[in-house]
Amino acid sequence: MTEKHRKTDHVHEALITDFAAHGQSESGLLIEPYRRELLLHCYRLLGALHDAEDAVQETMLRAWRHFDTFTDLGPGSLRTWLYTIATNTSLDILKKRSPRTLPTATSLASDPTRPVAPRSAEVLWLEPFPDSWLTEATENPEARYTRQESVSLAFLTALQLLPPRQRAILLLSDVLDWRAVEIAQLLEISVPAANSALHRARVTLGKNYHSEQREMEQVRRADTATNMLLARYLQAWETDDVDGLVALLKEDATLSMPPVPSWYQGREAIRTILLAVLFPSGVQKRWRLFPTRANGQPAFAVYRADEATGFYRAFALQVVALDGSRRDQRQVADVTAFLGPKLVTSFGFPLQLPQ
After folding, report:
1. Burial 148-176 (b: 16+ CB within 10 A, else e)
2. pLDDT digits (tens, 9 = 90+) for 302-354
3. pLDDT, tens only, 188-223
4. Residue partners of 235: CB distance under 8 A and separation at least 6
5. Can you tell me the distance from the alpha carbon of 92 to that of 338, in angstroms, rounded to the nearest whole number?
6. Local structure of 245: helix, strand or coil
7. What is the distance between the alpha carbons of residues 179 and 19, in angstroms, rounded to a whole number?
8. pTM for the whole thing?
9. Distance between CA atoms of residues 217 and 249, nearest Å
10. How far apart are CA 233 and CA 291, in angstroms?
11. Which one, of 6, 146, 135, lies nearest residue 79 by Cα?
């Protein structure tokens, strides 16, 4: 961990001294400020918001129970201790389940003229992460990957290809900027072993996370071209304008809808599936979209009309990747629609809205 990173530590030595005087009931006050950054770390490792929340809850419980074993070794030591617990807790979870992924990484593109595959309960899918929670985590300018890039869906999909321990080592080194000796101490391995694992992780990531994906991740800050594109995208959905929606896509754009394993590539394929499934003939004003941000990218909470009840019910959380090659002509490169009504609640939206 760099000296600059250590200086961001929340805990003053006086608080530790005060804790020793007042007992374990004060420990929650000391460890609670780290909850959000630990959540982000666990999310990167696990690829799922709910798994990360469980891991952080277990981390906080273990830290509270064993706070009397914590030894204050100077600035950053409490953070290091908590990251050690959180990392090992996440690795314990990963021993019991398969890595998470997205449909685009598991199979070839689907034929839009064939029936959509049923939802898969066997494959574990990535889950979206609210950008509003990212703002509370500390950015490290010296890291190889920025905070937002390190939670992009393209980065996470490639990251999940790494064995769990390599994944942890790469995150600690290239996202959090820890030194090899610190990583070795956390994982109780030798420094050469840590460096060797880091090298293997970087090679694998480099083969699966490409320069064009990094370019897409750079389209982050709102500008006129981006805002106009997203406004047109939202309007096309809400006015049933399939032609207008398709016109916003790159020629080789992709559409996926986890937990549905089918996914589609290319404007014409996406047009076909939109007309067949999402915009059926005779149904109007079926969709309402509300802008948000997820995984460092534009996103939308999606609601579908329920004629029986007269409400719009939460349907999905869409994450949209934009082509960053031309600033004057933005296009939609990828749409990942995470199906499931409860996802929108993590982004501050209700489960239903009046029509």
Report:
1. bbbbbbbbbbbbbbbebbbbbbbbbbbbb
2. 999 998 888 999 999 999 999 866 666 789 999 999 999 999 999 999 999 98
3. 999 999 999 999 999 999 999 975 555 555 555 567
4. 241, 244
5. 26
6. helix
7. 29
8. 0.87
9. 17
10. 11
11. 6
Q: Token pair of 238, please? A: 């809400």
AA letter at 75: P
Q: Kindly state the tokens that stand for 74.
A: 């100077």
List C-alpha distances in Å: 18 to 8, 15, 60, 272, 318.
Answer: 20, 5, 20, 65, 47
CB 349 within 8 A of CB 319: no
CA 108 to chain centre: 23
Helix then strand then coil, in percent of the chain rounded to 5, is 50, 15, 35
* Nearest alpha-carbon partner for 175 in 1, 32, 321, 353: 1
Cα separation, 276 vs 87, whole angstroms: 44
Judged on CB neighbours under 10 Å (0-12, 13-18, 19+), 272 is middle
Residue 216: both structure tokens together: 């897409």
